Amino acid sequence: MKNYIIYASLLVVGLAAGYFLFGTKGTSQEEEKTHDHSEHSEQIWTCSMHPQIRQPEPGDCPICGMDLIPLEENANEDPLVFTMSEEAVKISNIQTTKIGASNTSEKGLAISGKIKADETVSSSLVSNLPGRIEKLYISYTGENVSKGQKIASIYSPKLIAAQQELLEANQTKQSNPKLYEAAYNKLKYWKLSNAQIETILTSSSAIETFDIYAEFSGVVKTKKVSVGDYIKEGEVLFDVQSLTKVWAVFDIYETDLAHVNIGDEISFTTTSYPNEKFVAKISFIDPVIDPATRTIAVRANVSNGNAKLKPEMFINGYVEGITNSNSQLLVPKSAVLWTGKRSVVYLKLKDQSTPSFEYRAIEIGETVGDSYLVISGLKTGDEVVTNGAFVIDASAQLNNQASMMNQHLVEGGNTTAEVSIEPLKDNTTFKVYGNCGMCKETIEGSLIGQDGIGSVNWNKESKMITINFDSDIINEDQMKDKIASVGYDTETHKADDAVYNALPGCCKYDRP
Predict the structure, then answer these.
(1) Which residues share a beta bridge with 457?
(2) Which residue from 24, 219, 431, 476 has the fewest beta carbons nearer than 10 Å?
(3) What is the C-alpha to C-alpha distance for residues 490 and 474, in angstroms, rounded to an integer?
């Protein structure tokens, strides 16, 4: 009995000791764990296509159904500025360039084209006599012909009869000189020379076959007749093209036309003679644009005495940079995310502790080599991203900051009619086909910020868009064109198939 009491006492003491040693420690750990948990910020999940969606836990996007991804918070609160770590900049291979003003393009205009035959030095060799071809002295296409060279012999019954008339008139020349003169001129009409006519008179016999001579030098392009053919007076025997002069014809895109003028010097090379440079001056610019290729033909005259240049030969040309008396600010093409009146670049901010890039809308002008002329939005010395701009834009999009798809953030954070702006004088409503919330953003974003646009609101259920605008600046057709350019059909303006097919799956509406 005494032993049981001792064992019971030891058990109580052990339990008490365990409580004080381990129980309080566990409580401390729970408190510490609770404390540590409160120190960490809550993870936010977003949609890569709809960054306005933010949830405290993973799941599916309520708009498009895509898996949500963790949101990486940006250290900068400015929606126009995206901040990256040094490591992220290196991994993304972000490269920048300082822009400056220039009086000329750093690079000229590279163009391509073909050698063409000069149409001003072509001719047709014809027969002035009707009759049958007895012999041809030109055998094949491509043969060289010299002016004065014999090209054919013709038997002409009409010419034989005319010779007989001359011989008979010659016998009564003294008594009837006008008859003799008429017979003589008839042979002259058929291009017989005075020497040939005198030979007929001297021999007192008609010549049965007459030779035809080339009146033009060149290369035979087409052979129209064969021996034994009966031909009419004036019928073409051969088409001849001189290649001592040729045309260098280049195709210029209409966007580059401003850099090309008559009299400009073009240097070009050929595939056959890659190390030899040919130089010519522009002599003609086609007044009509090719509707299929949207190019304009530009022509230069080239001397070709050595016959190196052959028609249909491919050539690569180069127009030197065009000098301008006024200083022009140029931005590399690779820095501009899309072209148009409102283009976008990312500007690297100076004096920042971490790499920071500002979304900057600019207005660009014509193309100058590998650059665009800057009309507004940048100044000399600005440092723009020339490699990796899409990476920055995509990251800003995921972070719900200003980007190509989040242009409304630049306009005040809203793309709908609730934006607080002064109404413009005109309003219109028309149907635009679409499906989802992302469609709404894209449709409205195609107009928000455009000159003459006040407010825009597209209703997903009714498919109707309401626009407040100024008709003195922009009209309804222009607005429909802008909507169609981002992939959405209206009742009168259809989007290009390629643009429609590039829309996300959730935005593929049933086309009318």
Answers:
(1) 466
(2) 24
(3) 17
How many beta carbons lie within 10 A of that of residue 50, not counting itself?
A: 22
pLDDT tens digits, one per residue of 174-204: 888 889 888 888 888 887 888 888 888 888 8
Q: CA nearest 438: which of 44, 61, 78, 74?
A: 61
Task: Quote the pLDDT of residue 403.
Answer: 79
Burial of 432 (0-12, 13-18, 19+ CB in 10 A): buried
Assess whether pLDDT exceeds 60 at residue 28. Answer: no
483 sits in which H/E element: helix 476-485
Non-local CB neighbours of 167 within 8 Å, separated by 6+ positions: 200, 201, 204, 205, 206
Interstrand relation of 218-223 and 245-253 (parallel, antiparallel or unpaired): unpaired
Nearest one of 451, 438, 506 to 482, comparing CA atoms:
451
pLDDT above 60 (res 18)? no
User: Would the pTM of this model clear 0.90, i.e. be above it?
Assistant: no
The Cα–Cα gap between 348 and 382 comes to 8
Checking DSSP bridges between strand 95-98 and strand 383-387, what pairing results, if any?
A: antiparallel
Residue type, 246: V
Pick from 266, 296, 270: which is nearest to 281 by CA?
266
For residue 423, the Cα-to-chain-centroid distance in whole angstroms is: 38
The rounded distance, in Å, linking the Cα atoms of 270 and 282 is 18
Residue 155 phi, psi dihedral angles, 5° rounding: -95, 120
Binned at pLDDT 50, 70 and 90, residue 77 comes out as: low
What is the per-residue pLDDT for 297?
A: 94
Question: Would you give the DSSP letter of residue 399?
Answer: T
d(Cα 218, Cα 122) in Å, to the nearest integer? Answer: 8
- Structural domains in the chain, sorted by start: 81-105+325-407 (2.40.420.20), 411-507 (3.30.70.100)
